[in-house]
Amino acid sequence: MADSADEKELASDGLAKHVGERNVQIVENVAFANAVAKSPVRMFSRRMLQLYFFCFIATMNSCINGYDGSLMGAINAMKPYQKQFGMKTTGESTGFVFAIYTVGNIAGSFVAGPLTVSRPAPDPTRGRVGR
């Protein structure tokens, strides 16, 4: 260990420190920092583009879910809809329609996950860091 005379000041972010001739960096997760140092992330690699795509799909799903809920509320207030289906603004039948929507979301979540898995997940103990 270098003595205090060889140590320089901490960087402005408080994470990097120069000790003698060495550059020491303080990190929260050593394994993650080691993996990133050995295999830097390329912003437009095939795997990163897949990640962006899946994040986009999740975001759109969240948006459309909120849109569906507000659309159902707006349709429920429309007189032609009430007349066509014999509905009221409030009541048992209206609550049942909204409950079907929620139950469909819950049931769909249990079915959608297994249907999207086309192959078993890779064994993380045998995989490479980054591709």
Describe this structure in words.
It is a single chain. The protein is mainly alpha-helical. It folds into two domains: 7-40, no CATH class; 46-116. It is built from four helices and two strands. A two-stranded antiparallel sheet has the order 1-2. Strand 1 (16-19) and strand 2 (22-25) form a beta hairpin. The longest helix is centred in the middle third of the chain and has 31 residues, at 46-76. The radius of gyration is 27 Å and the shape is elongated.
How would you concisely characterize the structure shown here?
The protein has 131 residues and is mainly alpha-helical.
Radius of gyration: 27 Å
Mean pLDDT: 77
Terminal-residue CA separation: 37 Å
Helix content: 40-55%
**Tally the helices: what do you get?**
4
| Quaternary structure state of the chains depicted | single chain
Largest sheet: 2 strands, antiparallel
pLDDT below 50 for ≥5 consecutive residues: which ranges? 1-12
Structural class: mainly alpha
Principal-axes geometry comes out as: elongated
Task: Give the neighbour order of strands across the main sheet.
Answer: 1-2
Strand percentage: 5-15%
Number of domains as seen in the coordinates:
2
Order of helical and strand elements: EEHHHH
**Number of E strands:** 2
